[in-house]
Amino acid sequence: MALYKIEEFYPNYREELFDGDDIKGLDVYAGKTREKIGSIETALVDEEGRFRYFVIDTGFWIFGKKVLLPVGYCQIDDQARRIYAIRILNKKQVEDLPEYHENTKVNHKYEERVRKVYHTSSTAVMPVEVSAPLEASVPLNLPDPAFQSRAISAHANNGNSDSDTYNYQQDPSAYNLNTSDHQTLNLYEERLVANKKRRQTGEVVVGKHIETETARVSLPLEKERIIIERTTPTGSRTIPSPGKIEFQEGEIARMKVYEEMADIHKEAFVREEVNIRKEVERDTVEAQETLRREELDIDTKGS
């Protein structure tokens, strides 16, 4: 049976199968351990578009070796975005797997070598708890005939032959994802989500303008003047002795005269202080909605 890369069979596989997500690049871990063994490079699907293998790029784990992992030997943790290879427990098993190249012819003989390695480790396998296997969360619908015919034509150049008539249903544990024992159902409920956002409801602009008025002021001024009075003495007079009389010429007294002058000018003073601030008023808005919630109904038949 011919195998095709997922991007060849489904050119728009991200949107058609995974709602925009991509399986490429998902980390792959050995068994149920935390030992990373590589990542998914691509997937191989059969002529009906069913997933059969993941191509694992082991990176630096085993010097970039690429191997095939049957989809039945892995379990997918969709929430953690990782895959557990439940049949790979150590490096020795990966080293024993045949290497996959771009031009590898995946025929019945090559697949037998792959299955032989995984079957030898089946007794040591323990189940891994996962959140959702691939087919449980992502149904793989058949492509339309146009996609299928283009994929077969594109892959014919890689050397695959219709002589590979192996029926994958002969080994369902390796090529069928177990959706009966590992399914996760999501039960949804609605909740009220209250958010706040700010919007501008107004604006206050504070400015200044100048008003003028005419002011009058009265200022009394004083000025000095000199009064000189000359009088003639009356009554008895004392006649000084001639030797004590001193006759003088020139300046005999000096007295300064002052007057007040008006000094009227303008000065600026703080008349009033204005304090600008904002206050927050709080109000409570109440809303009422009808919320829906899913409940699980279990209908069992028989024993």
Summarize the structure.
Helix content is 16%, strand content 12%.
Poorly predicted regions: 123-164
Largest sheet: 7 strands, mixed
Which shape, going by the Cα principal axes? rod-shaped
Structural class: alpha+beta
- The average pLDDT value, as a whole number, equals 77
Please estimate the helix content.
10-25%
Architecture of the domain at 4-160, according to CATH?
Answer: Alpha-Beta Complex
Strand content: 5-15%
Write down how many β-strands occur, each being a DSSP E stretch of 2 or more residues.
7
CATH secondary-structure class of the domain at 4-160: Alpha Beta
Radius of gyration: 53 Å
Supply the CATH superfamily name of the domain at 4-160. Answer: Photosynthetic Reaction Center, subunit H, domain 2
Q: What is the tally of helical segments?
A: 7
Report the CATH topology name of the domain at 4-160: Photosynthetic Reaction Center, Chain H, domain 2
Element-by-element helix/strand order: EHHEEEEEEHHHHH
- For the terminal residues, how far apart are their CA atoms? 40 Å
Explain the overall architecture.
It is a single chain. The chain is an alpha+beta fold and 303 residues long. A hairpin with a 4-residue loop joins strand 6 and strand 7 (82-85). The chain has helices spanning 6-9, 13-18, 91-96, 108-120, 134-137, 145-156, 172-175; strands at residues 4-5, 27-30, 36-45, 51-57, 66-70, 74-77, 82-85. It has a domain at 4-160: Alpha-Beta Complex (Photosynthetic Reaction Center, Chain H, domain 2), CATH 3.90.50.10. Strands 1, 2, 3, 4, 5, 6 and 7 form a seven-stranded mixed sheet that branches. 16% of the residues lie in helices and 12% in strands. The longest helix is centred in the middle third of the chain and has 13 residues, at 108-120. The protein has seven helices and seven strands.
